[in-house]
Amino acid sequence: MRNLLAAVVAVGVLAGACSSSSQNSAPDRAGAAREAIAAEVASYDLAAGDTERFIVGLFTSHNRFVDFGHVRMEFSYLGTKSSGVNPKAPVKMSSRGSFIPVGSHLSPAPDRPTALPASKGRGVYGTNVRFDRPGYWQVRVTADVAGLGRQQATAAFQVYRHHQVPAPGQPAPRTRNLTLRSHVPRAAIDSRAEGSGRIPDPELHRTTIAASIAHHEPALVVFSTPVYCISRFCGPTTNLVARLAKRFHDRANFIHVEIWRNYTHHVINKAAADWLYRHGDLREPWVFLIGADGRIVARWANAVDAAEIVPYLKKLPPMHARSHH
User: Fold this and answer.
1) How many domains does the chain divide into?
2) How far is it, in rounded angstroms, from Cα 19 to Cα 15?
């Protein structure tokens, strides 16, 4: 159905592969000017008219991630045709971006943006912003990076007229995703079972989205392919949902939907296609919170931190004891 490997996904690519511009000034150390930053928009499915969760990844020309602290984001409208960034485009709005960690391992965390190898830090910067029209936009990110000084990077992105993927307020597709009871290869249920046949986090594979909706039970659903993910965020995001399942097991059903039914032959699981396959493309990971009424309450694309999800789960009332559907 789709060559997922050909998709351009946020942050998992090298700096030289990005269609971004960057500049730096006032380096803190000799030679820092040789290491500039680049930006890659990590958001999926932005639409005009709604307040959107916007995330962007920053990394350096030496293939280090920029993590921690805060950045400034300035947004400009480019028009209805894609033509790359325009440094002269007037700024329509600006916002402060906060760091969202995904696999960051420094403690204590630095209080300013810091360039780190992926083994020590990985994440994105996020903010909430409302785009007043569809078309192509750009973001200019300014960061005071430790050791590099004030850095800027610009990246272009598309804003749709309407959401392409199920969005908050809409009915959730009543999908019968694969579970532990499905008679399919184990890797079709979770790509981490490839080779061993063992399903990690079995609590994420006990029920379907359709059954959860039918029983009027909330569900937190992660669509991801931990083994084959291009952005490298699928594994940490799936692990996050598994940890939340242990902590909030009495508040919602927790479900993992594997993207690939057969990775070798590029066959996508129907449940993943129902939710995410649009116009010959599919991007992951996604996390959706479905309410007891069967409507989508919230969603998070690509990178998410527990601090963003936990407030929603805490608001859910405890569910009555139930058997797995």
Assistant:
1) 2
2) 9
| Strand stretches in the chain, DSSP E | 20-25, 37-41, 51-60, 65-67, 70-79, 91-101, 114-116, 123-130, 135-145, 149-159, 219-224, 253-258, 260-262, 267-268, 286-290, 296-301
Residue 3 has pLDDT above 50, yes or no: no
Would you say residue 293 lies in a domain? yes
Measured CA to CA, the distance from residue 1 to residue 48 in angstroms comes to 29
CA–CA distance, 271 with 276 (Å, rounded to integer): 9
Structural domain span for residue 43: 4-159
Give the residue among 138, 200, 167, 205 at the shortest CA–CA distance from 290.
167
Task: Look at residue 294 and tell me if it is in a domain.
Answer: yes
Whole-number average pLDDT of the chain = 89
**Residues in CB range of 30: below 8 A, 6 or more apart:** none
- Cα distance between residue 86 and residue 76, in whole Å: 9
Q: Is the dihedral of CA 286, 117, 72, 134 positive or negative?
A: negative
Q: How far is CA 25 from CA 15, 57, 137, 151, in A?
A: 19, 20, 25, 6
Residue 238 parent element (H or E): helix 234-247
Give the pTM.
0.88
